Amino acid sequence: MNNDKDFLKGRGAQSKVHNRFFEHQHEVLDDFLEYCLKEGEQADKNKTLYIDVFPKTIVNKVTSPDVGMMYSMNPYQGCEHGCIYCYARNSHEYWGYGPGLDFERRILVKKDAPKLLEAKLKHKSWKAQTIVMSGNTDCYQPAEKKFEITRKCLEVFLKYKHPVGIITKNALIQRDLDILRALGKDNLIAVNISITSLSEKTRRILEPRTATIKRRLQTVKMLSENGIPVNAMLAPIIPGINSHEILSLAKAVSERGASSCAFTVVRLNGSIGKIFSEWIKATMPDRAEKVLNQIAACHGGSLNDSRFGLRNRGEGKIAEQIHQLMALAQKKFFSDKGRTSLNTSLHEVYKGGQMKLF
């Protein structure tokens, strides 16, 4: 790893990135930087800002055929975890921000999410189907410790006996074990824990503000021991960075009780290719070009890939090797395990907030 003093620690992206929908862009000039240096001031304080937003709805229908969910909801937009590869970075442009540092430092907070969710679940036309929290950004990112919106939403799901899925890479989910356990009694909850590497060094630069690997593995074990099904998301697999860890990752999560594992091959859609390239040249200059070329080889020669059915799976020899390793891992460590469908039969009689008597 490069120890260049200019490397921005604690963040994934190393710069602000222009919003492609904006005609004008903000540029920091050298004379301003020189002024800050002389005055002993910081040109960029690198602070996180929480911004309240007020959407009219919170549950989104997922139209993508290769995501694996029908409905999702996101209590927060933007994510302070700072994962450099995150596909959600591009969505921040629709809110008027950039996909680089803005994505990590401008966190949009939907405090009305529990109320909007309750209205959705009570609607006469709504038929219970699993709603996945964190379809876009992590519902247990650091902001959740302050605002507790995810916990309040889980209370709504429990009140109306409605199935919910969670995707996270933060051990903060342990805080809500009481609600998760109650949901689990009626088979209303499934959790996906994302674990990208067993190397803490890799984790720190790839996902700078996420929970440690030790804490994530502990979370898999704790949830599993409490009867909550856990799928380990070994994703994304990045050639030259974590592709050699597939078997060891699968073994580690299986030993801690995960019922299944899944993966995706990294793709750097939209502006993420530029952000990732800048990052890897700063953190891994000795292998940057090799990794970028291997990623491109998985996507028809381009870092970006928008083809449904292929964008998350990849193609070519390198992607084929990843698939073969994952198939071996699943056969070796998960042959006697598997996912179960969540219960959608209870919600209808609880739509009024309590079980109907007549």
Task: Please provide a written account of the structure.
This protein has 358 residues and is of the alpha/beta class. 34% of the residues lie in helices and 10% in strands. The N and C termini lie far apart (66 Å). The chain is globular and about 65 Å long.
Given helix and strand content, the structural type is alpha/beta
- Looking at the structure, what is the overall shape? globular
Cα-based radius of gyration, to the nearest Å: 21 Å
Tell me what the CATH architecture of the domain at 36-263 is. Answer: Alpha-Beta Barrel
The span between the termini is: 66 Å
Task: Name the strands of the widest sheet in spatial order.
Answer: 2-3-6-7-8-9-10
* Share of helix, binned: 25-40%
Provide mean pLDDT, rounded.
Answer: 90
CATH topology of the domain at 36-263: TIM Barrel
Query: CATH homologous superfamily name of the domain at 36-263?
Result: Aldolase class I
Q: Give a short account of the largest sheet.
A: 7 strands, mixed
Give helix and strand order, one letter per element, not per position: HEEEEHEHEHHEHEHHEHEHHH
> Number of DSSP strands?
10
Name of the top-level CATH class of the domain at 36-263? Alpha Beta
- What is the tally of helical segments? 12
Question: Which residues form runs of ≥5 with pLDDT under 50?
Answer: 1-5
Keywords: Iron, Iron-sulfur, Metal-binding
Organism: Sungkyunkwania multivorans
Domain Radical SAM core: 62-302
Protein name: PA0069 family radical SAM protein
